[in-house]
Amino acid sequence: MEYRFAERVRNLSGNAIREIFKVLSDKEMISFAGGMPAAQCLPAKKVKVFADELLSSQPVKMLQYGQTEGYLPLRESFLKYVENVGIKGYGVDNALILSGGQQGIDLMFKTFCEVGDKILVQNPTYLAALHIAKTYQLRPVGFECGEDGVDTEDLERKIKEHNPKLVYIVPNFSNPTGKTLRLETRKKIVEIAEKYGVVVIEDDPYGRIRYKGEHLPSIKSFDKSGCVVYLTSVSKTIAPALRVALAVADEKIIRKMAVCKQAVDVQTVTLTQAVVDQFIRTGEIDRGIARSLPLYREKAEAMLAALDKYMPESFVHTVPEGGLFIWGEFTDGTSAKAKFREAVENKVAFVSGNDFFADGSGDNTMRLNFSNATLEQIELGVKRLGAIFSK
Ligand SMILES: Cc1ncc(COP(=O)(O)O)c(C=O)c1O
């Protein structure tokens, strides 16, 4: 049958990483492509203990319909938890539990944007944000990242030029670049957002995964006027398949997002919300993070050393202080995209950087994930990449 698909999905191809997942089923493939936490960091036993307790003590509550805004104890405990990034003085009406942080981006675009609207994103940015923008027929425009992730002069210039309603920023150990905004940049972003009446989406799934240096306050912590919507998720700090995340924003925004969420999935799964609540209240979330950090540091250092050993001179890369990614660039214009197939044939996968640019540029860049490979795989996989790119 010739299906008459909606205009907004007619030219939509799959999210590039989800497509790459298909080739990763090969057992010999060494993958630096995903953004998965290390398998040994997934706390199956603790999840089981908490879920058992909750199902025994509150079976009806766990399995019955709940509020769209989220399980009340979790809204309270999560709000308390984000006080550690300076988000203080908010009540439960400022909090919405999401089925993953990605849903927060989706609900924000849905809540604020009309077909054809422009939004500003880092250049490069999280590719799912670009993908979601496409589903709403928006026009993402990139601003320069500069050294720390946001070139505030370019941001201001682009706001004046394009008059966007929304700016999307990943502040810590950004996906894809691994960059982290300096304190001054965070303050300046709020100043600019307030000056031009633009709402900033601060998407922070990686902030707690810091294995070097000091934690910084969130952009939201400088917000006095309600111009920042803060998103965080437990996907990288507990487990991604729980699908639990948090939005903190002005009540008026939370109400609109909740109305849109009602239409999408009614509510986030109560059982996983309650499990996350237990992780936060018992401090288990922080103990889990503390256990994972030395492992991530070791893997990051192993990958950085292997890149310096095997990749050609023209390859430069970021040196992140946390998160799960290293970003590389060929200064001689070598196309990572053109070599992707050859890499997969040689059983090593990465994500070609162009997928992260609003304008599709960046063929000479690549994103490498180190969290989900073993140290041996990191050495061998980068060696394979080195052989391919040194030809
Ligand atoms: C920047 C960024 N935002 C959001 C997400 C989505 O996370 P979740 O699993 O909470 O939907 C990711 C996941 O990789 C991410 O890198």
Task: Walk me through this protein's architecture.
With 391 residues, the chain is an alpha/beta fold. It folds into two domains: 140 residues, Aspartate Aminotransferase, domain 1 (Alpha-Beta Complex); 220 residues, 3-Layer(aba) Sandwich (Aspartate Aminotransferase, domain 2). The protein contains 14 helices and 13 strands. The strands form three sheets. A seven-stranded mixed beta sheet has the order 2-8-7-6-5-3-4, with helices on both faces. Strands 9-10-13-12 form a four-stranded antiparallel beta sheet. A two-stranded parallel sheet has the order 1-11. Helix 6 packs parallel to helix 7. Pyridoxal-5'-phosphate binds next to helix 6.
Concise overview:
The chain is built from 14 helices and 13 strands.
What is the CATH-assigned architecture of the largest domain?
A: 3-Layer(aba) Sandwich
SS strand fraction:
5-15%
CATH fold description of the largest domain:
Aspartate Aminotransferase, domain 2
Task: Give the averaged pLDDT, no decimals.
Answer: 95
For the record, the count of structural domains works out to 2
What attributes does this structure have?
391 residues, alpha/beta, Aspartate Aminotransferase, domain 1, Aspartate Aminotransferase, domain 2, 2 domains, 7-stranded mixed sheet, 4-stranded antiparallel sheet, 14 helices, 13 strands, 14% strand, globular, binds pyridoxal-5'-phosphate
Layout of strands and helices, then pairs:
Blueprint: H1 7-10, H2 16-23, E1 30-31, H3 44-57, H4 59-63, H5 72-81, E2 95-98, H6 101-112, E3 118-123, H7 127-135, E4 139-144, H8 152-162, E5 166-169, H9 183-196, E6 199-203, E7 228-233, E8 245-248, H10 251-265, H11 270-281, H12 284-310, E9 315-317, E10 325-330, H13 336-345, E11 348-349, E12 351-352, E13 365-369, H14 375-389
Parallel strand pairs: 1-11, 3-4, 3-5, 5-6, 6-7
Antiparallel strand pairs: 2-8, 7-8, 9-10, 10-13, 12-13
Helix pairs in contact: 3-11, 5-11, 6-7, 6-10, 8-9, 12-14, 13-14
This protein binds pyridoxal-5'-phosphate.
The site of pyridoxal-5'-phosphate has 13 residues, from helix 6.
